Amino acid sequence: MRLPVVIRQIGSILIINAVFLFISCLISLFNGENSVFPLLYSGLIVLIFGIFPLIFVPKFTHLSLLEGVVIIVFGWITTCIIGMLPYIMWGGEFTLINSWFESVSGYTTTGSTILHDIETLPKGLLFWRSSTHWIGGIGVIVFALLILPHPVVSKLVMVNSEISGIARSNFRTRVTHIVRILAAVYFGLTVLETFFLWLAGMSIFDAINHTFATVATGGFSTKNSSIAYFDSVAIEIIIMVFMVLSGLHFGLIYATISGKRENLFRSEIVRVFLLVLFAGVALVTLKLWTDGYGDLWSSLRLASFQVLSVGTTTGFATTDTASWPVFTILVLIYFTIQCACAGSTSGGLKFDRVLLFFKNILIQIKSMQHPRGVFQIRINRHVVEESVVNNAMVYILLYLFIIFITTLVISAMNVDLMTSFSASITTIGNVGPGFSQVSSLGNYSNLPSLAKFILSLNMLLGRLEIFSVISLFFLKSWK
Hints:
- By secondary structure, this protein is mostly helical.
- It has helices at about 5-30, 35-55, 65-85, 85-90, 95-105, 125-140, 140-145, 150-160, 165-170, 180-200, 205-215, 235-245, 250-255, 270-290, 295-310, 325-340, 350-370, 385-410, 415-430, 450-465, 465-470, and strands at about 380, 380-385.
- Strand 1 and strand 2 form a beta hairpin.
C-alpha cells in the first residue's frame, strides 16, 4: 500500500470541507455572530492540511482495492475529526467528546445530537452542522470525486469501495456513470425541496438547512422541537415526500426521469418497500386513534411523519414518541432496524437485504419440500447471485450481533435497557432518535462519555457498511 497516494486523496476530501467552512464563516460574518473566527480558523487549518498533499505528492493513475478501502475508511475518520474543530473552538456544550459525537453524527447522517438548546447556536454554526449532513449524504469520497479531477481507474476503485455491493447490483449502468447519477439526483432533490419549503413558509435559511438534512436522510434541525416547531401540514407533507424519495435507489430515480425501462414503477424492491411503509403507517395510526391519542386525522398525521422519518433513517420529529403505546414503539423499532433502500442516502441494514432475507426463507422451505428441486431468488425478474445472498445473510447476522454487543456494553454503564437498546439500533442504523432518554425530542448529552464514543463508532460502522472497516484488521489477507 502506498501511503502518499492515500494522503493525497484524503487531502482532496479536506478541501471540500474547507469550502463549506468558509461559506459558514461568511454566513456568520453577515449576521455579526461570534462564530466567525472559529469557522475561519477551522477553514484555514483544514485548507492547509488539504493543499499540502496535493502540492507535494505526485499525481497517480492507479489505485489498488486495498488503497481504495483505506482511503474510504480513513477519509471518513479524518473528515469527522476536522468537523470537530469549529465546535471545539466555539465552546458552549461542545466538549471534546460532544464535538466528536456531533461531527460523526452529522457526517454519517445519523442526526443524533448532544445539544440541549439548538437555537442558541449562531447561524453560521447551524449551517456548518447541516452541511456535514449534506456532504456525508452523498458520501465524502463521492463528493470529492465529483468536484476534483481524478483518473478513471481511480474513480472505479473508489466508487466500488464507497458503494456497497447490494447497491451496485441495482445500478443497471456502467460504474463510471454512478457518480454523475448520484450527483444529478442529489442536487436535483436539494434544489426542489428548498424551493417547496420556502413556498410553504420557511425562511430561505431554514429551508436550506432542513433540505440538507432531508435529502441526506440526516435529521439535524435548526429548531429544538424539530419539525414540530413549524406546525404546518404543508411543510410536513413536503418533507415526507422528499424523505421517501431520498430513501429510494437514486439510480432508479434517475432511470425514471430519463425514461429508462427499469425504473421506480417497475422495481419490486420499491413496491414492497412502499407497501411496508404504508402498513406501518396504518398500524401506528389505528393504535394511536383507538388509544385516544387524538382523532383519526391527528393520529394519521403523527403516524405518517414518524414512520416515514424513521423508516428512511431521517430522524425528524413532530412529537415525542417516547410517550406512545408500546405497540407503536415496537413498530418504529422494526423500521429503525430495516431502514430504506440500497443506493439511497439512507443508512442502516437496507430494505434490499431484508427482502432477500424473507425470499431466502421461502427458498429454504421449498428446498425442504422438494429436495431435488433447484430454486433461485429473483428480484425484478433478475436472478440474484448466490454470493450476494450469502453476503446479505452474513451482514444481517453481524449487524444484529453488533447491536447486541453495543447494548450490552452501554447497559453496563448503568444506562437503562430501552435507552441502551434504542441508542444502539439508531446509531448503527444512522437513524438518530431512539426512545427513553434519547427519544425523538430528547438528546444524547446525559450519556456517559464512553457511551457517546462507542455509539459514534456505531455510526461509522453503519455508514461504512461494517465490512470495509473490519477488513482493515486483516491486512495480511489482502492481495
